[in-house]
């Protein structure tokens, strides 16, 4: 069976800067996969290019989602296909309430009753959002904002969710909570690809991993094997 | 919580209005009452223009100098439609009521202006932004377009101010004991109606919320499936529609001429700053404050000072409180 997401020889150019240099990767339906690597390895650019959030002029190569090429589509079209991204740095709508933020994630859905139901499910997953539903997004703590960002993507019932640095700037306890939620979302059927600088938690959460270095995939294996790899241990796990 | 806050503010505003009303009716001399009414009327017009500036700033981070000239187009177009429909439906008799045809003209003019606003954004602003030019060049382009419209209007409609036929059969109505043109009352009612409708559209509908979301964070909005490019175009369209409504509403009061919008448009900018540049409610309040300030200066000091007060207030606010009454941070954090 063809993978749900397949990236073939992807390049990205920011003007003259060649930041992604021929990446190949795939994610099968139901999988949870991670991209790890140092700052500037091209993780965010790769993810945003998949979601159509980078300028299409800089993209070379092919991105197939459900077998269809999507590398020329704008971001809002990609969302319509069932691929949603939780952006790095959360990008909460600061002056919309928590509930408005969530409902904005369901912008493309037309079934009001279904949206209500899924709103309930998001609140069930993150009860703290229910407590703060009328509060403005900008007044939430970092952890709550991350929950809101994930909830905003989840409410659209995506076939696949991309997450960019979900642990960024959060306290260890909150990070744990966030990753438990991500695993739960995955176990309920959403395919997940996430980028993470915290390699330890990334490899503990995902089933497969890609290691990126200066815009290229230097290693690809199951997380179990990556955790036991001496180079990975030294470079990314600090052992 | 936010809803409670809005309700509280609305209640406070209503209470303040009642107090002002009672004061005016029972204690104020007739001159003060007259000035207050004119000020509110003028303030509504400034408010409509200022709203457009704020919407555009929020959606694109830009300042458009075309706003005032769209008002001029609105005034001329409104007059053209109004005259046409009066000929079509009316009997042409002196003193007949034209409210229906006037409303029809308002709607048509607004629709045209809305399309013009979208075309302006899609055809020029977006094209320039896609070339990655600096924001200042886009603003300069709007100045050029503004002059093109002013001179174009002069070519089409001529340089002489045109009178607009009266809308109502009566020449005067009594409001708080002052005789004023009924068109002024219509102007206030329709402007207030527009503002209230805009408020509910922006805060209570999915479409409006998505427009606000796109203005707050374009990338996040796109990641939610919102067509940000379309949202920006619609917002420019709404700004243009509001300006055109302002134009057609002042037509019967001041007459219609090519510099109408340029003069009022510049002051509307000042109103937007007073209220808090980029804040919808600030734009409305700033407009009313400016309208009142202007008419009171004209009434109690001198009418030559009248045209200065908008700019004095503008500079004063920029120095003392650049975030305006609603404390809107116009300058983005980098």
Structure description:
The complex is a heterodimer of chains A (239) and B (334). Chain A has 239 residues and is α/β, with parallel strands linked by helices. Helix content of chain A is 38%, strand content 27%. Chain A has helices at 43-50, 75-80, 98-105, 112-125, 127-131, 142-154, 172-187, 199-205, 223-228, 230-236, and strands at residues 5-14, 17-27, 32-37, 59-65, 68-69, 83-86, 160-164, 191-196, 208-213, 216-222. In chain A, the strands form 2 sheets. A 6-stranded mixed beta sheet of chain A has the order 6-7-8-3-9-10, with helices on both faces. A 4-stranded antiparallel beta sheet of chain A has the order 2-1-4-5, with helices on one face. In chain A, helix 3 packs parallel to helix 6 and helix 6 (142-154) packs parallel to helix 7 (172-187). Chain A is globular, with a radius of gyration of 17 Å. The model of chain A has no long low-confidence stretch (mean pLDDT 94). Chain B has a single domain (31-90, 97-320), classed as ABC transporter involved in vitamin B12 uptake, BtuC (Orthogonal Bundle), CATH 1.10.3470. In chain B, 77% of the residues lie in helices and 2% in strands. Chain B has helices at 2-26, 30-60, 67-89, 99-130, 135-157, 182-204, 206-216, 218-223, 228-254, 260-275, 280-301, 303-320, and strands at 173-175, 178-180. A two-stranded antiparallel sheet of chain B has the order 1-2. In chain B, a hairpin with a 2-residue loop joins strand 1 (173-175) and strand 2. The mean pLDDT of chain B is 90. Chains A and B meet through helix 2 and helix 3 of A and helix 7 and helix 8 of B.
